[in-house]
Amino acid sequence: MWKESLLVVLSLVAFKEICDGVHIIEGLQNDHVHNHWKNIDEGGSMNSVDAKACPTIVTRADWKARTPRDRYNMTTPVPFVVLHHTDMAECFTYDDCCKMMRYIQDFHMDFREWDDIAYSFLVGEDGLVYEGRGWDTVGSHAPWYNFRSLGVSIMGNFTTKLPNQRAVDAVSSIINCAITNKKLDPDYVLIGHRQATPNRTCPGEALYKEIQTWPHWKPGDHFPPKH
Ligand SMILES: [Zn+2]
């Protein structure tokens, strides 16, 4: 049943413009810049953070992540948080969210052909934070911002409904954790993905309205500067 629903999701996302669908080419570009930082063995980044100041973070080992094809070091603290939804199924239990993490990683690596799952961290409606690329690795979730942001994605589609409070609290918690551990500038700017990339609907209309009430959200379009 799970596999069937995954197939349905896969075909849906394959034929509609999804949250991060613009990054097929941009993601590849992002993933192949700065290769002098190449060091796949440094994939696990949680060791460099004081766990006492952080929420429970489900590590890559916990959710049985694949090894990234490659990774590029990100200089921290970063000045931005880019919030996403995955535009895929929601998950409410540890087991389902771990399965979803593996599914999203497979989709991003095999279909999008990125090096790894796109985001820095993901959040489930089980209230847990799931390690994506982690603190110190450049993401593949929003061009230009990939090198200077934490990409946080709530699992689900939040176009017409909001994520539950546990997920919202988890986002707040990972942001505070990032500040405490000097991975994020205390004066950070929060934006929705649609503010970073033209013609996106991410993080969904309902959630986008909600984040406008959150601390540090900044209005307007912050598209990459023209060089
Ligand atoms: Zn997005």
TrEMBL record:
Protein name as annotated: Peptidoglycan-recognition protein
PANTHER family from the UniProt entry: PEPTIDOGLYCAN RECOGNITION PROTEIN, PEPTIDOGLYCAN-RECOGNITION PROTEIN LC-RELATED
Domain of life, per lineage: Eukaryota
GO annotation, biological process: peptidoglycan catabolic process
Signal peptide positions on this chain: 1-21
Key words, A-Z: Signal
Alphabetized InterPro entries for the sequence: Amidase/PGRP_sf (IPR036505), Amidase_domain (IPR002502), PGRP (IPR015510), PGRP_domain_met/bac (IPR006619)
Domain Peptidoglycan recognition protein family: 55-197
Single annotated GO MF: N-acetylmuramoyl-L-alanine amidase activity
Keyword Methyltransferase in record: no
